[in-house]
Amino acid sequence: MFYQGEPGAFSESAVHHYFPGEEARGLPSFAEVFQRLVSDSHAYALLPIENAYRGTVTEVWDRLVEQDALTIWAEVVQPVHLALMAPAETTLDSVRIVRSHPQALMQSRGFWGPRGYSAEPTLDTAGSARALAESPESGVAAVASPDAAARYGLRILAEPIEDYADNRTRFWLIAQRKPPCLPEGNRTGQKVTIAFDIPHRPGSLAAVLSVFAEHSLDLTKIESRPRPGYPFEFRFWVDAALRGPDPADAFDALHRLKEAVLFHRFLGFYPAFAS
């Protein structure tokens, strides 16, 4: 199973938690993960899609909706606890720069912001820890998981440093075909994800959303993203939870949706899990 990042990344932890025994292989960027998913019909990956407090991982969504061959097969929610770490000779008082993935920096801004640290974004939380362990720099610390500190021999200067104690990220299991494994955990329900474009006129969005209400689908997320090729127009993304195990309402809603939109893409009908 692929994930984005270095060993010790939160994505790797999510793989091990929900797919025990599954071999996890990290790739440096989301672009490389999606390239592998598109080129290999047997490949599958667990990728972060949204943090509970800092919002959508937009690159994952934008790349997913562009690839018609890919489907969401499951959702998992993983707690995210952050630590400030550095080589042994670095003290908390000497830190001037923090490095990490932009999401981790946003999720811990309440810690490093008031201290006046400068933030430098990197591709990955664990990657920032590994790089610092391999090439120590005076006054530089990384924000990553406690597991990353142990893996790369860094000293934890402060933990937990996330802004919210119940910080969590949800991940999607993405592949062309149904993966050979599904998550182990507490199944919390069944969801559907759809992307669509609507006519640029009053009432268009309200007409579409009424379809979900009429079919007893509980909207858990709605977000707009720029519509490719149409400046200042938007593509909508909707996640909805089913009130029961029968997918008929979801498929009926999708059929109705086709009549009200310019473009639609059904991205997945899938189980959701939490730890």
UniProtKB/TrEMBL annotation:
Any matching Pfam family: PDT
Q: What class of enzyme is it?
A: lyase
User: What GO molecular functions are on record for this protein?
Assistant: prephenate dehydratase activity
Q: Name one GO biological process term.
A: L-phenylalanine biosynthetic process
Q: Which residues form the Prephenate dehydratase domain?
A: 1-176
Among PROSITE patterns, the record links this protein to: ACT, PREPHENATE_DEHYDR_1, PREPHENATE_DEHYDR_2, PREPHENATE_DEHYDR_3
Gene3D superfamilies in the record, alphabetically?
3.30.70.260, Periplasmic binding protein-like II (3.40.190.10)
Give the UniProt keywords, A-Z.
Answer: Amino-acid biosynthesis, Aromatic amino acid biosynthesis, Lyase, Phenylalanine biosynthesis
Q: Domain ACT: where?
A: 193-271
Q: Which GO terms describe its cellular component?
A: cytoplasm
- In which pathway is this protein known to take part? Amino-acid biosynthesis; L-phenylalanine biosynthesis; phenylpyruvate from prephenate: step 1/1
Catalyzed reactions per annotation: prephenate + H(+) = 3-phenylpyruvate + CO2 + H2O
Which Enzyme Commission numbers does its entry carry? 4.2.1.51
What protein am I looking at?
A: Prephenate dehydratase
Originating organism = Sulfobacillus harzensis
Taxonomic classification, please?
Bacteria, Bacillati, Bacillota, Clostridia, Eubacteriales
